[in-house]
Amino acid sequence: MHLFTYHNPTTIFFGKGQIIAVRRAIPEKHKVLVLYGGGSVKKNSVLDQVRAALNKHTFLEFGGIEPNPSYETLMSAVELARREGSDYLLAVGGGSVIDGAKFIAAAIPFEGKDPWDIVEKHAPITKALPLSCVLTLPAAGSESNNNAVISHKAKGIKRPFSHSLLYPVFAVLDPTTTYTLPLKQIGNGVVDAFVHVAEQYLTTPAHALVQDYYAEGLLKTLLEIGPQTLHHPLDYEARANFMWAANQALNNLIGVGVPHDWSTHAIGHELTAMYGFDHAQTLAAILPHSLRVRRQAKRAKLLQYAKRVWQITESDEEKAIDTAIDKTAAFFEAMGLKSSLAKLGAEREVIEKLPARLQEYGLTALGEHGEVTPAVVKQILTASMNG
Length: 387
Description:
Elements: E1 11-14, H1 21-25, E2 31-36, H2 40-43, H3 46-53, E3 58-62, H4 71-84, E4 88-93, H5 95-107, H6 117-120, E5 131-135, E6 147-152, E7 157-162, E8 170-173, H7 183-201, H8 209-231, H9 236-249, H10 263-275, H11 279-293, H12 299-308, H13 317-334, H14 341-344, H15 350-360, H16 374-385
Parallel strand pairs: 1-8, 2-3, 2-4, 4-5, 5-8
Antiparallel strand pairs: 6-7
Helix pairs in contact: 4-5, 7-8, 7-9, 7-11, 8-9, 10-11, 10-15, 11-13, 11-16, 12-13, 15-16
């Protein structure tokens, strides 16, 4: 197991009716900027509950943060907060709104010329506004980690960034807020969480028993409750387990002391930037083919995955790996996603264009050991286009 330091300062308020915790968790001295996306939080009464919880606070609102939050939209929120003197952010929504809040929190006090430098050039973050969130779409785990992914529409790129100052102070996780979500978003959320675990687990052995068993437990949980929560939207226990599993998938715990991959995410970000595909859909279309192309480097963990997660007892190791990957792709399909770029309807031009973009951005050594070069990416894309 590798050396690590683990710290997660985010307080979780979990369960039905916990939105009221916002009242006591944010000191009344703060001027709160409430951030949200489209109209769903208005239609399902979540925003009304937040407003009621803040009835003794001074607050204003900014809506319209889109999926794959854009720098352009977020800068409008930054300008509003600076103008009105907001000093606390409350994100109400899914990972996109929370990711957007993290950028806004860092951008408001940023003293450089262009806050986009925080994302693209990793400009130092020396201070950030406190932020918290009310989660309505389990998927990204952004509610209790310090990571974010932001798009720049004018430049046509999508980039991740992180900083220790960007952990939410608290997160409210009320499973009932997910009851009215479209089934597509539920499927996306389950697959997103599944791939988050896979990117930290399906790498190379590190003799990290706790991390491995924990990751496998999360994968098995998602396999079990994914279909349940998709087909029974009002099943509280299924939604509760889904929400908690998605949180644990990327709260930085299962990834300590072990190698990380994230090449599927890097490829997926480019697919979203180029073609506008849903984030989770890009992951579903890439991961199975990445595992096939890279099966030798990941052999030990793929065999472990086949045995422990899928209970595959096939003595032929190659067949066991094939079956595990096939079952993974079938699960993505069962959740309503396409398991290849061919099924997604992508153009074959992606095979040449996407690796060239990665080359341009200097992303030429991806994966747990830097072995995923643009040439390997091309192999993965070719496999997915032929899938």
